Amino acid sequence: MASHSDTLVVFFGATAGANGGKLGSDERELILLVWQIVDLHEKKVGKLQRRLVKPDSLDLTEQCKEETGLTVDELLKAEPLDSVLQQFQQSVSAEVKALGRSSYTLCVDGPLIIRQVLHPEASKKNLVLPECFYSFVDLKKEFYKCCPNAGPAKDLTLPSMLDYVCIPPVTDQMAGATEVENMVQVTLHILAEPYSHKFTGFEAVKYKFESGACSKTEAVDSETVIRARGLPWQSSDQDIARFFKGLNIAKGGVALCLNAQGRRNGEALVRFINSEHRDMALERHKHHMGSRYIEVYKASGEEFLKIAGGTSNEVAQFLSKENQVIIRMRGLPFTSTPQDALGFLGPESPVTDGTDGLLFVKYPDGRPTGDAFVLFACEEYAQNALKKHKQILGKRYIELFRSTAAEVQQVLNRYMSTPLISTLPPPPMVPVPVLATPPFLTTGTTRDCVRLRGLPYTAAIEDILEFMGEHTIDIKPHGVHMVLNQQGRPSGDAFIQMKSADRAFMVAQKCHKKMMKDRYVEVFQCSTEEMSYVLMGGTLNRSGLSPPPCKLPCLSPPTYAAFTSPAALLPTEAALYQPPLLATPRTPQPTHSAAPTLAYYPPQPHAQLYMNMNMNYTAYYPSPPVSPSTVSYFAAPPGSVAAAVAAQPSPAMLQHGTQHGALVRMQGLPYNAGVKDILSFFQGYQYAPDEETHKLSADAILVLYNLSGQRSGEALVTFPSEEAARRAVAERSNQNLYGHSVRLLCCK
């Protein structure tokens, strides 16, 4: 409503649960509406109107019965909310017209009845509220303007305001009518001399959420940000805005959070226009979105900027178009062009500005990630596009989801900061004793591990550490192992290695059936051997251990990682390779060279079970089984990588007496290319021309992965000599492998 309204409608409501300062905090329905008109020019009041509202649930709290005096029998005779609101609008419009006035504005004792009750309930019941409920004046704030010495506006109450101006309160009316008559008394008092107050503080409720971009340089007040947890994975920013209906979210103020795999993790950061709205949002803790309850916590401005802030000009330009619906496409073939994407979406889903409305997500070196974002001018076009969810483009099915400007920023920020080769930092950032410890996973019967079963599928390692509480200090380094299923998704299980069996027992006793988010988690003490069987793909239940579903011969050769020995750390720049898909390092074997070396870990007869465990773990559960740390990843200089790896003999070379090898780097590999494909690519190349023929083996191949656990399109291949490496580069460079031109480089 505009500021020229000449009539106030003093408005009051009560719910079936908490009222007063906690109105709307328990998500209970409206049961009572009371209103009365005040003519601002003539200082006259209209007839008091009181209506009961029939809620869907007739369960009244004892506090409600005591405060309102209403009974279930009375509410049974009442009409539902939509009918009462229609009566309200007709009654007020007729009375305002009879007074010869043209407009009116609601006047309430605090914003809760409008923001925390009417709008959320109408949203859940799919009711369209009259326009008058999108603007109101707060009597407390208006009174504070006249009487600033009465105290802060948020602390004012009807009795305190009446007492300050020496007006006796009305107490002999029915519930609701008493409050309205007292509000009318205060209103008339500040309209009269000496105040002659003009009502100008009109507050608005936003009709819809406005999407937009956020810059990392923007200042975000931490008193305006919350974190919402437990969201359905398919939730959009509009769904979240609907959950907070009645509260004003800042433009572009919904940021959906993504996990390490780039998928939504059921959390979002929401930024409101001020701290008052943030505080009301916190009162919606454990309110429901559909059948799920949502947890709401305080968050900081830094967290919001980390998720939603962007620096890319390309993204800013893409998001500069106003009022666009954003759809995310995932799983695109890496060879897809903008024309392919437009053809897939079809003429019934025209993309805004054609190819300019497409944003393909790429790695820093320009390689495609398989993700893209698309702009549509209206909801109808977006709905038509979403109907193509999981339809085929090329040989792949495409996933389509509603997205947000903040998600665009987050995805671009993540991929653009991903290093080409994931390596651990050199010393002194990584303490030598950590690298010198025995393998983290060893077979044994000591019950120094715990198994967590029934985890929420959105749970991350940070959630597990929070769940463990004070027992976190007793976890071994790199001792948290998330278990994924064959599709690479969370299975609801995790294993944690504790420092001793006593600590594991204590955790199982203290944390068993403790709640994580909306689920209770079972915690059992177990041994490393039992853990190994489950990580291999077997099962662990009350009847004992079941063997894993497949044995060693059924699996492709694993991707081996090279770990720098402690002796090599200080005198060299040797980089440490730790592809995310590798389970854990194998026990280092002694080498035959006195020079600083990289230790490879080939399978040994006595370690057959351990090798099986790692290989199966890699095949079935491709997630990095490490605890979070402050150690960051970055790309090592190619020279140091080459020097570190090329200086070492492969296991096959050690067996045949070769002392040194040369390293070749492969670039531009198809993303589905594995060890066998690389072997086929170099078919016919031998280790030593003057010895018995020994073909290139899988031990000499290292496939590189990015931080998302995906193949990076690069690999390192060890040849027996520099001459053999140069020959391979000269003869095989720029040759095709499955339609991709593969570049070969000799590392020096």
TrEMBL record:
Alphabetized UniProt keyword annotations: mRNA processing, mRNA splicing, Nucleus, Repeat, RNA-binding
Any GO molecular function: RNA binding
The RRM domain, residue ranges: 224-301, 662-748
GO cellular component terms listed in the entry, alphabetical order: nucleus
Subcellular location(s) of the protein: Nucleus
One biological process term in Gene Ontology: mRNA processing
InterPro entries documented for this protein: ESRP, Nucleotide-bd_a/b_plait_sf, RBD_domain_sf, RNaseH-like_sf, RNaseH_sf, RRM_dom
Similarity comment: Belongs to the ESRP family.
Main function: mRNA splicing factor that regulates the formation of epithelial cell-specific isoforms. Specifically regulates the expression of FGFR2-IIIb, an epithelial cell-specific isoform of fgfr2. Acts by directly binding specific sequences in mRNAs. Binds the GU-rich sequence motifs in the ISE/ISS-3, a cis-element regulatory region present in the mRNA of fgfr2.
Name under which the protein is recorded: RRM domain-containing protein
Organism this protein belongs to: Alosa alosa
